[in-house]
Every structure is written in C-alpha cells, then in structure tokens.
Amino acid sequence: MDQLLHVFVKVAEKKNFTRAAEELHMTQPAVSQHVQTLERLMGTKLLERNNKYVKLNKAGEIVYHHAKEILGLYTRMNHLIDDLMNRASGALSIGASYTYGEYILPHIMAELHKQYPLIKPAITIGNSNEIVEMVSNHQLDVGIIEMDIEMKDVYIEPFAEDQMFIIASANHPYAKKEKVSIDDLRSETWIVRETGSGTRKATDKLFSKYNFFPHDIMEFGSTQLIKEAVEAGLGITFLSQWTVKKELSFGTLKLINIDGQPFFRQFSFITQKTPFYTKAMEVFLDILRKHRTSANSLAKQ
Predict the structure, then answer these.
(1) Tag placement on the chain: N or C end, fewer CB within 10 Å?
(2) How far apart are the first and last CA of the chain?
(3) What's phi and psi for 30, nearest 5 deg?
(4) Residue 35 near residue 59 (C-beta atoms within 8 A)
(5) What b/e sequence results for 274-299 when a residue is b if at least 16 CB atoms lie within 10 Å of its CB, and e otherwise?
C-alpha cells in the first residue's frame, strides 16, 4: 500500500503521469497501473484526466492529504527502528521561520554536521504559520517558529529569547537622538512583514501595546527587502536583533531608542506529540537547547 500511495502522491504533485514516471524511475504504464490499483481499492476515481494534465477530484484530495501523513509516519517508523541499532544518522526534515532559519539556523547546522556527519538534514524556510502547518501535517519532523500558538496536535517548547528593536537608516533624524517618543513615530512609514509571519505578529503586538496605529504601512514578504528599503530611507521597521547584526556593525542601520526597548519574544520548536524521537531528532533538539543562551542578547550598537 505504501508504494501505491507514494506513486499517487507523486502523480498528484507533478500533475502529469510522464513527469511522475521519470522522477520515480518507472515506466508510464506502471505508474498508471499503480494509480488504477489504488482507485480500485478506494472504490472511486481519484484523478480527473485529460491530454495535458491530471488533477485531483474531491476524493483524490482526501486521499492525497492522508497519504502524505501516512507516508511521513511510515518513514518515521523506519527511522525509529533503524535507530535501535545505529548511531544518530539518516534524514531529518527541519522547518524554520525566516528570522531563525536565515540568521541563526546555519550556525546550528554547522555544529550538527560537525558532531553528527551521518545526519542528512533538509531545510525548509517559511513564515511561522506555514511551518506550523507542515509539522502538523507530518511534512516536517521539527519546526522552529517565532510566535505563540495554541494547537493540541503538536508539542511546543520555547527554547530561546529574542530581542527586537525599531530600526531606521543611519541618516534618519530619529536615529541620531538619544530618546524618541513612540508617538513621534506615528507619522512615519512603517515597513512590516506579511500576515502569518512571527515578525509581523510581534509588530502588531508592539502597535497594540502602545495603542499605536501608523498612518502609513507597507507590507513586504522578505526581511532582506525590508532592510534594503529602510537603508534606502523608505521608512522604519521592527526587526529581530539577529537580522540587523551586520548592518548595525557597519553603521548602515541604526536603532531608534524609545522607552521600553528592547522588546522580547520567544523562539520555540514544535514537533509531533509522541513519546518517541529518532536519535537524529534528539541530538538536534539537544543542540538547540544548548544554544538558548547564545540567542538571548545583543549589545546595543
């Protein structure tokens, strides 16, 4: 059954029997036969076919959703059995939000590879909501996010504290003042991340805390793009210490000093709720926890 599901998932994702057959290293008739066998077992058609593509019908969408979960659980079961006889090794799928994934995770991965070279990680970067959904759907072994969530089907553990600051270009008038009132920033153009990101949620909390709603907001889907725009003088922003470390040291970006700064939030990891982790997962989580102190402070520059 697992092979039937694997072939079906590949056809659904490629939307084409030929492309699926090429990736699976099978013949097209063999792929078609696997799908037809699965349809007979399900008692219904799962795909709508024409000369150019195939697509899932309603029944196919249900089977595809659960097939992804089943295949993920099957792979994980095999890894757990392998771990009974072997040292930490094998595949480990890791998801991370943009801030942690792009600015901190590379250092964690370097240490993981140095200590456990047989672990083969695959990294997915997305906003926090996307990472949560992928862990919940068994598409990732572990996710690292930068926002609070309440979900019953995943385990959540805060493991590090992050500091966040209001950031402006080096030439911004407020960057040269010792102290600025938050009300002074009401008329500024604020450049923020998209809804669903942990940074956007932290920004919204900042606005809510001060009962503060800027007149002009621009929404960008990339932290790097936000930094470039702020550096160019387009507006100000609210970002993690880790995302602006280099720019602060080079002097191209500056902190705007307001009362109550820095602001704090938590980095958390999420996994499936289970009493069993692969050895690869266990050692990765141990490394994360050991790095909690290194992610907790950045001296003002």
Answers:
(1) N
(2) 59
(3) -65, -40
(4) no
(5) eeebbbbbebbbeebeebeeebeebe
Q: Which residues contact 265 (CB under 8 A, 6 or more apart)?
A: 146, 147, 161, 162, 164, 198, 202
Give the angle subtended at the CA of 264 by the CAs of 272 and 291, to the nearest 5°. 55
Question: What is the tens place of the pLDDT at every residue in 161-193?
Answer: 889 999 999 999 988 888 888 888 888 999 999
Tokens of 269: 């990891």
* Average pLDDT, rounded, for the chain: 88
Give the confidence band of 268 by pLDDT, cuts at 50, 70, 90: very high
Q: What is the pLDDT of residues 217-265, one digit of tens each?
A: 999 988 999 999 999 999 999 999 999 999 999 999 999 988 766 788 8
pTM: 0.66
- Residue 287 CA to residue 95 CA, distance in Å, equals 16
Asked, as a colleague might, if the bond just before 262 is cis with ω within 30 of 0, I would say yes
- Identify which of 23-32, 72-81, 149-158, 284-293 has the greatest average pLDDT: 23-32
Residue 243 tokens read as: 């995302």
Q: How many residues are present in the chain?
A: 301
Q: How far apart are CA 40 and CA 25, in angstroms?
A: 24
CB 286 within 8 A of CB 233: no
Domains of the chain in sequence order: 1-72 (1.10.10.10), 80-160+266-299 (3.40.190.10), 162-264 (3.40.190.10)
Would you state the structure tokens that stand for residue 98, as one six-digit string? Answer: 């943009």
Mean pLDDT of 15-42: 90
C-beta of residue 164 within 8 angstroms of C-beta of residue 263: yes
pLDDT in tens, 115-140: 899 999 999 999 888 999 999 888 99
